[in-house]
Amino acid sequence: MKLLRSRAIWGVLLVVMGLLFLLESLNILALGAAWAVMFAAAGLAFGYTYLENRENWWAIIPAMTLLGIAILSGVSTFFPRADEVGVGIFLGMLALSFWIIALTTRMAQWWAIIPGGVLLALAVAIALEPLLPGEAFVGIFMLGMSLTFGAVYLLPVGEGRMTWALIPAGILGLIGIIFLAAATRLAALIWPIALILVGGFLLLRSLRR
After folding, report:
1. Phi and psi angles of residue 106, each rounded to the nearest 5 degrees, phi first
2. C-alpha torsion sign, points 106, 110, 116, 118
3. What distance lies between CA 87 and its chain's CA centroid?
């Protein structure tokens, strides 16, 4: 009975939102900021589903997504020149949903770290884009993804250390450093330093032998 009641509530909610979308598309009704309220209400409903039963961890994703859309809608309505901030907040909300899943399930759903970290890196890069020169946006994003895979390796999971995560972490980190160096005019120093480090490593290995 509880399941049927839940399906009926969601059915009514979807039908109402569909009708409102249709009326606004036909220029019969102008809702404006009311959309933010409706998306927030739908997000809170999913949040209640999650809080009522923590095994329904999937519900946190639509909850945070809808709340993020509500914030994005509100920002675009009241602050039309701050769209980048709204997009950054929306992506941050999505990222937070995956981190909540990973942490509240005690890393049983460790896979959630990856989309959570990638979305968080994208949110930070977008938020900082107006302050970043040229290729620095790509560099920040790549370094964020590198830290994400580093977290996959470092955070405890039931399967033990995931050493494979060090490979994408290292590659993405190197790409991020190269892009940041190019954007901040440090590229001329990166390659000599890289050659010195690699040469020193090879020299130490030969001396140990």
Report:
1. 55, 45
2. positive
3. 11
85 φ/ψ sector (left φ>0, alpha ψ -120 to 50, else beta): alpha
Gap between the Cα atoms of 180 and 194, Å rounded? 15
Helix%, strand%, coil% for the chain, nearest 5: 80, 0, 20
pLDDT digits (tens, 9 = 90+) for 35-87: 777 788 888 888 888 888 878 888 899 899 988 888 888 777 677 666 677 78
- Do the Cβ atoms of 46 and 65 come closer than 8 Å? no
Domain ranges (residues) in the chain: 1-31, 33-208
- Backbone angles phi and psi of 31, in degrees to 5: -95, -35
What burial letters (b/e) apply to 20-46, b meaning 16+ CB within 10 Å? eeeeeeeeeeeeeeebbebbbebbebb
Which has more pLDDT, 53 or 144? 144
Does 116 score more than 90 pLDDT?
A: yes
The answer to whether 36 touches 71, Cβ cutoff 8 Å, is: yes
